[in-house]
Amino acid sequence: MKNKTISSIGEFGLINIIKKQFSNSNSNNVIVGLGDDCFCFNPQKNNICITKDMLIEDIHFKKEWTTPQKLGEKAIEATISDIAAMGNVNPKYAFIGLGMPPTTSEIFVKNLSNGFKKACDRHNMTVAGGDTVKSDKIIISVTILGTSKHKLIKRSGAKPGDLIGVTNTFGDASAGLFLLRKYGIKHKYSKEELFLISKQNNPKARICESQKISNHLNSLTDASDGLYISIDLLTKESIKGANINMDKIPISSSLRKVHKEYKKALDFALFGGEDYELVFTVPEAKAKLLKKLVPKISYIGKINSSKKVKYFYNDKEQKIKYSGYKHF
Amino acid sequence: MKNKTISSIGEFGLINIIKKQFSNSNSNNVIVGLGDDCFCFNPQKNNICITKDMLIEDIHFKKEWTTPQKLGEKAIEATISDIAAMGNVNPKYAFIGLGMPPTTSEIFVKNLSNGFKKACDRHNMTVAGGDTVKSDKIIISVTILGTSKHKLIKRSGAKPGDLIGVTNTFGDASAGLFLLRKYGIKHKYSKEELFLISKQNNPKARICESQKISNHLNSLTDASDGLYISIDLLTKESIKGANINMDKIPISSSLRKVHKEYKKALDFALFGGEDYELVFTVPEAKAKLLKKLVPKISYIGKINSSKKVKYFYNDKEQKIKYSGYKHF
C-alpha cells in the first residue's frame, strides 16, 4: 500500500482524518459542532477552565523516540494535567493546532490522531476544533476547555500548617528522557529502564485523583516542570514558606534501581519535569482522609509563614541549587 | 540601551512582559485570572464560541515585511475573524501560544505584545492565558473564546433565493502580499500599493458589522482563504448551488489602479486570501435593510438548489478554475 503524504492529500484531507474520529460528539449542549468557523456550546451554568500547551519537534520530543500514537496521547494528557491542577473539573473539549511538514505521511497523521482519540476517550472528551498549517517541524498546540460546578483550587491558597502532598513518584519521566538522550530508543533496556521511558512517553494526567481530593485542598498545582518549581510556585503565590523533607519525596523502585546513587535519583525527582503529578497543600487534619481516597499520596513537607523554602535530609538542612530545565 | 534576548530574560521574563499588559482584567466573572494552571471564568448563561489559529514565520509572515506590533495585531484580528463569522458574538479572551528562538530580542516581544494589546483593546478583549516555548521559527498560536446570547449563524443555513453578500472589497490583502514577495518592504511604493500592503499587514475583523447584521442572516462565514473558497464552503455545507455575478464582486480602486488588467484584479479577489471580509446569505427582502446597517455591503449572487456554483460575467457564464493558495 502506498503511503501518501500530507502534500498529496491536502489540507482538507488532513482535517478529514481528524474530523472523522471526532465528529460523533453527541453531547446535547453543542450548538455548532466541529467544522464551522467556531465550535459553539452552551456551558449550562458551569464555570469554564481553559489551558493551552505547545509541543515542538526536536524541542519537546523526537519522532524516533516515541510512536505517533503515544505522541498524540501525550499532547492531550500533558495539557489536561493543567485542568487536573484546578480541582474537580471535567475536561470537555480539545482544540488542536497542527503544524506539519508537507512530507509527513498520512499514516503518521492517522496514528497521531488515534493517540488524540485514545486520550480523549479516557477522559470522556472530544476534539472540537483546530487549525492545520505547514511548518518545518511538527508542532502540536493544544487548548483544552473544562467545565466545573465545584470550587476551583488556586496555587495561592496554601496556609501555614498545611501539609504538602503529592500524588505519586517523581523523577521517572525525566530519567526516561535521560536514557533516550543517551542511548536512543533501540538500545536493549532493562525492565526498569523501560518503565522510566514509558513514564516519559506515556504520562497520564491526574484528573481522577484531583476530582476525588480537591474539595479538601487549600492549594493545588501540577508538576510539569519538576517538583522543585511546583513547590516554589505554590509557596510564592501563597506568600508562604515551607520545610521539605527530601527523604519523604517518593521515588519509584525502578528509578532507584537504575540510579543507585540516591542523590542522582533525587535530582531527577526535584528538577526533572513531565511527571504530571499533583502537588497540593491540605490542612493536617484532612491528611489521613486523603490517603484513604488516593492511597499513593505522600506528604513531603509543611507550609509555614517564613516565605522561605528549606530542604531537609534526615532533619539536616541541605543547600539546594536549581539545576532543572531552562525553557530558553 | 542594551537590547536583551529572550535567552537572557528567561521564560518567566518573557511571560511577565505579556502578563504585565493584561493583568488588569477587571471583569467580575473571572474566577481564576491569568497566571495559574488554567484561566477560569463564569460564562453567566452565555453560549461559548471557540476558534484557534496559528501563524508561522516564513510560512504566514516574514519578519522583515511587517513590524512586530502589526504582527501581534494581525494574529489576534485574523483569529477574531472566525468569531465574527458566527454572528453576534463578543470576543472575550485570547490564549496565546508563543514559540520563539532564544535569540529573539526582548524589544521584539514587547512590540509584539503591544500589538496583541492594541487588537484586544479594539475589541474589548484580554489575553487570559498561554504558553511560551523555544522554537526555531516564531510561532503564534491564538485561541479565542467569545460569548453570545444570540442566534449563532452557521455556514450551512443558505436557502434558495438568498442573496449572497459581502462586507467590503476583495483581493487587496493578497495583492499586497504579491508586492511584498516581489519587491520586499523597502521598495518605493505608490499610495495605492501601500494601501494594499496595509490590508495585508493590518487586517481588521468584521466583529462590529457581524453584530449589526447577523440577526437577519441565513448563513455566514469569513473569507480567510479567498472568496471562491468561502462561496464553495457556504454552498457545499448548505447543500445548495449559486450563480455568482463576477462583475458585482467589489474591488478597491487601489487594486484596480495597481492591476489595470481587470482579470488579474479579479483573480486576487477570487483566489487571494486574508481579506477577512464576511460572506453571508440573506433573504432578498432583507437585502436593503442590511445595506442601511452596513453601507459597504455588496451583493454578488444568488443561492439556488442546483448544488453547483456558476460564475457569470456580463451575464455570460465563465469557466473558473481554482488557482489559490495550497496550504500543503
Q: What report would you give on this structure?
A:
2 copies of one chain form a homodimer. The first copy, chain A, has helices spanning 6-22, 68-84, 106-122, 172-183, 191-201, 207-213, 227-238, 253-258, 262-271, 287-293; strands at residues 30-32, 39-41, 47-56, 90-100, 126-134, 139-148, 163-166, 219-222, 241-245, 278-282, 298-304, 309-313, 316-318. In chain A, the strands form 3 sheets. Chain A has a 7-stranded mixed beta sheet, with helices on both faces. The longest helix of chain A is centred in the first third of the chain and has 17 residues, at 6-22. The first copy, chain A, is built from 10 helices and 13 strands. Chain A is of the alpha+beta class and 328 residues long. The first copy, chain A, is 35% helix and 24% strand. Chains A and B meet through helix 1, strand 2, strand 3, strand 4 and strand 5 of A and helix 1, strand 2, strand 3, strand 4 and strand 5 of B.
Write the layout of secondary structure elements.
2 copies of one chain form a homodimer.
Chain A: H1 6-22, E1 30-32, E2 39-41, E3 47-56, H2 68-84, E4 90-100, H3 106-122, E5 126-134, E6 139-148, E7 163-166, H4 172-183, H5 191-201, H6 207-213, E8 219-222, H7 227-238, E9 241-245, H8 253-258, H9 262-271, E10 278-282, H10 287-293, E11 298-304, E12 309-313, E13 316-318
Parallel strand pairs in A: 4-5, 9-12
Antiparallel strand pairs in A: 1-2, 3-6, 4-6, 7-10, 7-11, 8-10, 9-11, 12-13
Helix pairs in contact in A: 1-3, 2-3, 2-6, 4-5
